[in-house]
Amino acid sequence: MNEVYLIAGMAGVTFFIRYIMHPASGRMEFPKLLERALAYVPPAVLTAIILPAIIFPSGQTHMASLENPYVIGGICAFAVGWWTKNLLTTILAGMGIFLGWQWFLS
Amino acid sequence: MWVKGDFTVETSQPIQLQTTATKAYGSPSTEFFAGFRDTFPLVVGAVPFGIIFGALAGTAGLSFWAALGMSLFVFAGASQFIGAGLIATGTAWPIIVITTFVVNLRHLLYGASMVPYYKKLSHCWKVVLSFGLTDETFAVAIGRYRKKDNSDHKHFYNLGSMVFMYANWNMCTLIGLTMGKTFPGISAMGLDFAMPATFIGMVIPYLTNSPMWASVMTAGSVALITNSLPHKLGLMIAAVAGVAAGITWEVIIGRKRNR
């Protein structure tokens, strides 16, 4: 049941955002500052999700060490991404290094 | 089977089309297929991400129908990944809906840019085209609307682009889901890390100036500090702090330059 609420909610807000300007047009002005602020939203949200997930995987409180394959994978994925500027390469390299490090530790 | 009549149509039409450049557009069906054609590279680019989404939505704990339903009804790549990522960390659905809202807010600007072009369309058209206003289709369609020829069927171009993206995204989600089901060991294939790697790869293109760096560093540090807060409250605090840091930094360096 929760999944139905989740999908309906996500679909509802996404459609609302994409559609609302049409009935609202002419009655709504975008403050310039808000328009610029929106550009920061995706990277800020993505980072806010990913950093805790990498440093504290599955809820642990102090895992920022070399024994945490997520940290190693994350650092390497960032390096590869920065260097290649290619999303798919970044994902595949990150997964490969993560797997390799996991295997190396076990 | 080629009937003679068909064949003459096939040969004569392209010649006519090439004589004037604008003739390549025009009728609803030519517009539709032009939209299809121009979206092709972006569709190809979306293939691996659709498959990855399908495969990891399963491992994140979404049911088959919920994962497919996300692609069918939400149809917004980044927020679908974020949704699946938050499910994996056991986040309650209202928080995920709020996060989706925040992440997709940038689409307000897309909608606003389309207002003059959708103005004359029927309500039904506005609803359908708005639903499909993804980053990719927006980028392709706005280019067509801005071209200075007075075709009355530019919205069919927009529709063609959106239909192609939509069909492909759902097909790829389905393929990924099937792969995840057929090979349950797939999560041992490094898939646990597909989400973090995807997010890292999505952040990097934004990091082109110092305000962006300030924003991302702030969001990341605040998220770490507030990680123990209940209901993923830390996520919202971190996101707001990150956006505030970015815009503040932008204003500060803007002032310095103006001096």
Outline of chain A, from the CA principal axes?
A: elongated
Measure the end-to-end span of chain B: 74 Å
Strand segment tally of chain A: 0
- Major β-sheet profile of chain B: none
Task: Please state roughly what percent of the residues of chain B sit in beta strands, choosing from under 5%, 5-15%, 15-25%, 25-35%, 35-45% or over 45%.
Answer: under 5%
Helix percent of chain B reads over 70%
Low-confidence stretches of chain B: 1-23
Distance between the termini of chain A: 39 Å
Radius of gyration of chain B: 22 Å
Q: How would you characterize the largest beta sheet of chain A? A: none
Oligomeric state as shown: heterodimer
What is the arithmetic mean of pLDDT of chain A?
85
H/E series of chain A, N to C?
A: HHHHHH
In DSSP terms, counting alpha (H) and pi (I) runs of 4 or more, how many helices of chain A?
Answer: 6
Q: Ranges of chain A with pLDDT <50 over ≥5 residues?
A: none
What sort of overall outline of chain B do the alpha carbons produce when their principal axes are compared? globular
Task: Give an overview of the whole structure.
The complex is a heterodimer of chains A (106) and B (259). In chain A, 75% of the residues lie in helices and 0% in strands. Chain A has 6 helices and no strands. Chain A is elongated, with a radius of gyration of 20 Å. Chain A starts with a helix and ends with a helix. By secondary structure, chain B is mainly α. Chain B contains 12 helices and no strands. In chain B, helix 2 runs parallel beside helix 4 and helix 3 (64-74) packs antiparallel against helix 9 (154-182). Chains A and B meet through helix 1, helix 3, helix 4, helix 5 and helix 6 of A and helix 2, helix 3, helix 4, helix 5 and helix 6 of B.
